[in-house]
Write a structure and sequence with these properties.
The two termini are 17 Å apart. This protein is an all-alpha fold and 139 residues long. It has one domain (3-135). It has helices spanning 3-28, 30-36, 41-74, 78-103, 106-113, 116-135. It is 87% helix and 0% strand. Helix 2 packs antiparallel against helix 3. 32% of the residues are buried.
């Protein structure tokens, strides 16, 4: 395996493992955490849904990175590397912001909520860069 592909596969594996850990945390610990903070049942359900959305997109991003690593082993070009970086940053910003929105007090939600579209835009850019990488010449 080419070194660049191997590095991105490792990043994908770590990212995927973290998505599973956080998904389990969301399923098992978030509701009781929120209940201990005084949230009512409706708020707990809404925030748990938010947390699961973050974990879902986190997982999708990890799978995207696996795919990019596989493609990078066959064809290396700048657009594919840009795609991987955009997705990794998108996971951190989008999923990180949504995880935070689910866990922070109401007063802090808007701060993190404003970051989520930036992360989503990075994820979209990753898909666009992947398409560009698919038609680009090998470096």
């Amino acid at each position: 395996m080419l070194p660049i592909a191997q590095r991105w596969l490792i990043v994908a594996a770590v990212t995927g493992a973290l998505a599973v850990v956080l998904g389990a945390f969301g399923a098992h610990a978030v509701p009781s955490y929120l209940q201990s903070r005084g949230f009512d049942a409706e708020a707990i359900a809404d925030r748990s849904d938010d947390f699961h959305i973050a974990a879902r997109y986190h997982t999708y991003g990890a799978l995207f990175l696996v795919g990019v690593a596989i493609v990078l082993d066959r064809q290396t070009n700048r657009a594919l590397v840009v795609a991987a970086w955009c997705m990794l940053l998108g996971i951190v910003v989008f999923s990180g912001a949504v995880y935070a929105v689910a866990l922070v007090p109401i007063e802090a939600r808007s701060t993190f909520g404003m970051m989520a579209p930036i992360g989503g835009s990075l994820m979209i850019a990753a898909w666009v860069a992947l398409a560009i990488g698919a038609v680009s010449k090998r470096e």
